[in-house]
Each structure stands twice: as structure tokens, then as C-alpha cells.
# Entry
Amino acid sequence: MAEQNMEAKLKNQLKQEKIQLWNPPYTDDNNQPGQQHMQELAERYAPLLCLPVQEVGGALEAIRMQAVNRGKGNKMFRETNVATLELLLPRHCRKDPKTKNRLKTRLDVLVQEVVDRIGEEYGLKYIKLILNGKTLCVDQNLDQQGVKNHSKMMVLKVSDAEWKQLNEEEEEKKKNQNESIQRTQKCFQILSERDGSEDTVPFLEIGDQSGNPLKIPHKLKKALILAMGFHEKGRSLMKKKQFDNALCHLLQADQLFSKVGSTLLSSVDNFAVLQLDIVWCYQALEALSCLDDGKSRLQRAEDCFLQCYGEQKQRLLMIKGNTGREEVLFLRLYLLQSLLSYIEGNDDQAQRQLSKVESLYSRLCPDSEKMAQLMALGFTEREARLGLRACQGDLQEAAIHICNQRQEREELKQRERQKRSKRMEDISTLTEMGYSRRDAARALHLADGDMNKAYEILQDSTQVAQATNNNTEGVVDPEKVEQLLYLGFERGVSEAALRLTGGDVQSATQLLLDNQGVLSPELLSVSPPSTSSSSSPSSEEPSTSSNSTADNELVNEVLEDISRHEEDYLDLTLEEESELIATMKSYLSRGPSHAV
# Structure
């Protein structure tokens, strides 16, 4: 990392002075160095970096050769589509550590072909190619896996026994990752369909920062539950130090969040925390080649935090009464920003960010004696840690705060129990009227628990079914459709709304207004009683697939290692952060900071 830091500083200085090492007088017509001018540069830059002239001269020559070779490579790639790849060979294969090993190849060839060429040229029997921390699949082309002109690839040598074991482990790992992603997706799809109508199975609600349920459209809720589910699974894998598998889940969550819409994402901190988690995985995997992506993600995280919490965290203070617990997110943000600034050669910026980190760390690292006193009172380790942070380390205030938190959570659970109990009663009332339990539950869900509205939805669906049974086959009056089109609704939903309301324009209009002009699949699938008479009771339907034994087992399995605590993402022990702080301090203390 120190070499990257020195090279970055030199490149920044060369850029500022508009010095092009690949051109005269630094490079002659035969691509050889202009010794005198290169020496003068080294002597001028060495005091700025507080490094020996010889070391700086070597780094400048390395930069010059990189530029010369890159220019040659670019020209060749433009003219012939033959790319130049840099190989990081095993130590014993490097004839000269300072000489770069390059391979020229087209990018539309199988990785296996490149593996065979490298093996033959360097006498390596079994090798794997690593790009950006990921092993390349031999049965896919280079360009399909992100390999570009001038990409750096690590060549990993393995023994016969290791080769066989690695192959088996890789297959098993790939299989497990795919299974984990598929099972996570299925679990949260099942949960996104549940509405609390079954008293014995878990279901999810999306709440605000105070824990109160949010009323959002069903389609958006499903997308959010899936995205948040993948995020939580990724976080649980991070805790187990399985950063590669965690990153797979986090990137899946990122993709799903992108479908939610910027308006909602800017009002909640989930998306910002996800960006932090992804970059934390990058640094844990030492994937420093993801620098540009990491910078943009940290910027998105910072912007989102400011929007959610307020410039001075005033909005957060208003909602939660304190800001202490969320400070750990800023500690991790500033620490990652410090790391990326250092890698870019900006020591001053890195030091400024690290100073902010150390200030936060001194306030947020829990006092072991106070932790022990709170835990002796019967509080959990998490409660003690979060309580002390919320109250700036005040022991008595923390104890009061934790008690208040417990009471608030209990009151919230009580309200949820009452709400669920009322819902079960309403479902029973509707089933006594002759509707199936499933349809009653869906209607109540669509009506936000309003019994009268749910009954209207069920009645409307019954009228549509009766009209269909009278051989109308759901045909709607074109004039009525035109009336709804005139009001601004789309043709498809207008026709569907008229079918659901038996052709009544006024009811269809109200239905569309209530649902913001969008009819969800659940509303369209609400079915009437199984008999032709709306007053006849229907038999109880068997459990839907979402509540089957197999589904319940899958849901319980996936949820088992995911924390149910709403502030788990704030409960950082800061052990990993402490290690990275120490690493950053050791690098930055090697010499005076210079904005070179």
C-alpha cells in the first residue's frame, strides 16, 4: 500500500506540472529514458516525499515504463484488437521483480486458452487466474468476466492435490453461494406475500425509524422486503467473516434497491448503510482495484445520510431524541474515506478524515467498567453498548434510556398483537358471510384493515364473477372505458376496474382513486365464494403454498441467522475498525504529510 501511495503522489505531481514522461526529453525516440532529466526530477521530488533520491528515481522510471507500454498497448489494441495483460506471477517465477510480465491476447478467447499459454511459457502445471479478487472461470471468455486491455491478473499456482481440492471447493462454494442467494430470494418473496392473516407464521412489516408500520403500495413493499432481506443476509455473513459470499448478497440487494425509486431511498438510511457495507467488504477482501466504485458508493452514502438525518443530524435528533448510536456509521464512513484518500496519494485528506475517526472512536468505544455495571443490572451487552453511545457514556442516563427503549418496544409489540387479533376477528367475520379465508385476508390487506372497504371489494369481485357467469365474459362498455380515460386513468386498469365493479363507473373511479390508479395482482385475483350465490357459505380453503410446511421451514432457516433487533446495524463492536485505524496510523506516521 505504501508503494501505491508513493506512485499516486508522483503521478499527481506530474499531472499538476503537465509532465509527460513518455515524451521527450524524458523518453527518447527508442523509448529509452532521458537519464539527465529523469535524475533531475528524482532530485526535485525526493525532498517533497521525504524519501531517498534513488527510491524516487526507481518509482519515476516505473511510472515512465508503464506509460510507454500503455501507449504501445493502446495502439496495438486499436489496430489489431490484441490486448496487453499484466501478469502478477508467483514469486519463484519472477526473473526480475521490477520487470512487469505481460501477455498479449485477444479478449474474445476462453480463459482456458490463456491458462494453457501461461502454464507452458512459465512452466506452471496448475494455475488459477485472479482478477479483482475473483477467480476467472476457465469455460468463459476473458471479456465476459470483465478483463480489459491493461488488466492486471494474479497467477495463482497450486499443487496437484491442491488443484483437485480447490476445484472441488470452488464448485461447492459456487453451489452454496447460488443456493444461498436462491433460498434468500425465495424466503423473502414468501414473506413479502404474507399479510398477517395466519396467526402462526412469521410475516414482515416495513416500519419507520420509530418502528411504526409504513403504509406503502404493495408492489413497492415487496421490492423493499426483497432488497432488505438480501442486505440483512449479507450482514449476517459479514459477521461470520465470509466477505466474498456476503458481497454477493449485498450486490444483489443493491440491484434490488435500484428498482425501488430514488424518492424513497433518499428518505431512509438503509441504502446508505448498504453502500458502506459493500465498500467494507471491498477493503476486507483487499479489492483495492474497486477504488473508483468504492469512492462513488461512499459519496452516495454520505449524501443519503445528510438527507435522512439533516446537516447537523437535527432530523435524527427529532425522531430518536439522540444521535449517539448512528455515529458509528459516520466513523466507518470517514475511516473508509481516509483509506481511499491514502491510496490515491492524498495524505493530508487521509489524515483529516482519520482525525475525525479517532475523535469519534474515543467517544464511541464503550467503557468496559460501565458496560459491566449495566450488564450486572440485567441488561444485554448490545443494550449496554447502544445505551452508553446514545447517552454519551453517562451511566445513569444509559440505564434510564435502556428501560425506556424496552418499554417502547413492549408497547409496540402490544399494539401489533392487538392489530393482529383484530385482523383475525375481521377475517372470521368475513368468512362467516361466505367468503374464503384467503379472499377475506387479501381484501382486508388491500383495504388497510378497513372492514367496510374490504366487504365492498369482496362484493365487487362477486358481481364481476356473476356477470361473467351470465356469459358476458367480462366485456366492458367502451363508453364507460372512455369516461375513465377522460379522467386520466390508463385503458388497461380502467377496463379491469370496470370488471371488478360490475361495470359501475362511479365505483370503478373510486376503486382506482383508492389504489392510486394501479390495481395490484392481489386485487385482480380476489375471487368470489365458490358457489354462485353470494350468501352461501364456502368451505375453508387449504393453506396456500406460502404457508406450506416446506415454505415455513425455509423461512425459519433463513431468518435464524438474521438479527431481529431493529438496531443491529448500529451495534458495531469497533474491533475491526480499531485494526484498520492502527494500520492507517502506521502508514501515515512514516513521514510528514505532503499534498503531492
